[in-house]
Design a protein that fits this description.
With 419 residues, the chain is of the alpha+beta class. The protein folds into 3 domains: 102 residues, no CATH class; 115 residues, no CATH class; 141 residues, no CATH class. Strands 2-9-10-11-8-12 form a 6-stranded mixed sheet. The protein has a 3-stranded antiparallel sheet with strand order 4-5-6, with no helix packed on it. A two-stranded antiparallel ribbon has the order 1-3. Strand 5 and strand 6 form a beta hairpin. The longest helix is centred in the first third of the chain and has 25 residues. The structure holds flavin-adenine dinucleotide (FAD). The site of flavin-adenine dinucleotide (FAD) has 19 residues, from strand 8 and helix 10. Flavin-adenine dinucleotide binds next to strand 8 and helix 10. One of its GO terms (biological process) is chromatin remodeling.
């Protein structure tokens, strides 16, 4: 993407120390947590190397967690320290959108991402999207809200490709079609909970003094918190680990700071939460109540929380529901999971080859594929990858139609990993 549209405000969320709550809701010693995190990242880095170098020899049913267990057994750690590292490593789930037990070690190298700042686009992607869509909006005939129900190759013998797209209401015929539909695998969801004020940043007027065991009662509260294996939640919440991003810090979010908590959930926890909200409309009391009830055990542990105080009661809640969204492929994005089928080498599913096949598309039929699932390996599952894949397909379509010389743009910077 060239430059940054002026109206997009981005903030770097890196470097804000996480504050964690362990089993019983007690904060973890900062130094201990930092050392644990360092070890987690060091093992993850080893895992990428191992997966890159030994992909062909790793069984498809071996998970990232299996490797962690193996690596931790080689170290002389106390039982508690080993457990802490295993609990911290669960945060990998928030990257890939599923439990880390399901993360394939064989295909772990496909998860390796571009290095860079961890930017938070506080005012959403709208300015970036508008800029990218400008020429299409100006020159193309755009039909929104028309769901394609089938794609048919209509090419006659020795004729140029013709592709028929059927929708519920009408049909369209094209000479080239780019399909962006995918079947996402991961289960990542976000839940926003807004409050009248950011009570966790400063004590509420008139409320009793903040609990002295709280890690901080000032606005220096970190922007990330992890609730590790909580045993203080109702049984049906199964001690799922959740991640919390606090969007209230002016130091991090400038004038876009808001008294909002952003929870990230994944795997079975995300499936459970989306099933809770499924029967209810966004505006209903039931929708509000199920989300509030689910997340209260977590947010009630924040500093200065006072039960029954009106400022500690949410003013609005909103959850994503990608798992029940057909147009999103019923999931969030591509990830690479373990497979229990350990067959012979010839039958083995090669996930990198699958991605290459998708990228190659079916140019002879006028059908191409783009989207995060066809991106360069370093950007699979990301917006950057989706953009690059579209750009790459666009250039290849120009090439296939003898128009490439007129295209002044360089091909994708990651052309080495494209077909
Ligand atoms: C919770 C969450 C957090 C994420 N965080 C990040 C992040 O921090 N950084 C990052 O880079 N990426 C992140 N991603 C991933 C990123 O959002 C996706 O990789 C990216 O949006 C994929 O773009 P795409 O164009 O491939 O697919 P999509 O954006 O899904 O576009 C596909 C389009 O095809 C349309 N479509 C599908 N089926 C049909 C049909 N039958 N007929 C007509 N139209 C159809 C859909 O409506 C949609 O508009 C996150 C995703 C989620 C869900």
């Amino acid at each position: 993407m060239e430059g940054k549209p002026h109206s997009s405000q981005t903030y770097n969320t890196a470097g804000r120390m996480s504050w964690m709550k362990q089993d019983l809701g007690l904060p973890i010693n900062k130094e201990k947590a930092a050392a644990g995190f360092d070890l987690v990242w060091s093992i993850i880095s080893d895992a990428f190397k191992h997966s890159n170098e030994n992909c062909a020899n790793i069984a498809p049913n071996v998970s990232l967690k299996d490797l962690f267990r193996e690596k931790l057994a080689e170290r002389s750690l106390s039982h508690d320290d080993r457990n802490l590292v295993l609990q911290l490593a669960e945060m990998w789930g928030a990257f890939v959108g599923d439990s880390w037990e399901r993360q394939s070690l064989k295909w772990f190298w496909l998860e390796e991402c571009l290095d860079g700042e961890n930017l938070f686009i506080a005012d959403t992607h709208h300015a970036i999207l508008q800029r990218m869509a400008k020429s299409a909006m100006r020159d193309a005939d755009i039909h929104l809200s028309k769901t394609a129900t089938s794609i048919e190759d209509r090419k006659g013998k020795d004729k140029d490709p013709r592709v028929l797209i059927r929708t519920e209401h009408c049909d369209f015929e094209f000479d080239e079609v780019v399909v962006t539909r995918d079947a996402s695998y991961s289960r990542l969801e976000k839940v926003y909970i807004a409050f009248p004020v950011a009570f966790w940043d400063s004590p509420l007027p008139g409320a009793p003094n903040a609990d002295s065991t709280s890690p901080t009662t000032s606005a220096s509260f970190p922007s990330f918190a992890h609730f590790l294996h909580p045993t203080y939640v109702p049984d049906q919440q199964k001690s799922w680990t959740v991640e919390l991003n606090l969007l209230s810090s002016a130091a991090v979010f400038g004038n876009r700071a808001q008294p909002v908590l952003l929870f990230t959930i994944y795997g079975p926890c995300a499936t459970h939460v989306t099933s809770l909200i499924a029967p209810f409309s966004l505006a209903s009391t039931q929708y509000f109540d199920v989300l509030n009830d689910f997340f209260r055990p977590y947010y009630s542990l924040l500093p200065n929380y006072v039960a029954d105080h009106p400022d500690c009661f949410p003013s609005a809640v909103l959850a994503t529901n990608w798992q029940n969204d057909d147009l999103a492929g019923n999931g969030s994005y591509t990830n690479f999971q373990i497979s229990s089928e350990v067959g012979n080498a010839e039958e083995e599913v090669l996930l990198d080859e699958d991605v290459r096949e998708l990228r190659a598309g079916m140019p002879e039929h006028g059908i191409w594929f783009a989207g995060e699932h066809t991106a360069p390996f370093v950007a699979l599952g990301t917006s950057t990858g989706a953009y690059w894949s579209g750009e790459s397909v666009g250039i290849r379509i120009l090439g296939a139609n003898g128009l490439l010389a007129k295209c002044s743009k360089d091909p994708n910077p990651n052309a080495d990993v494209l077909p």
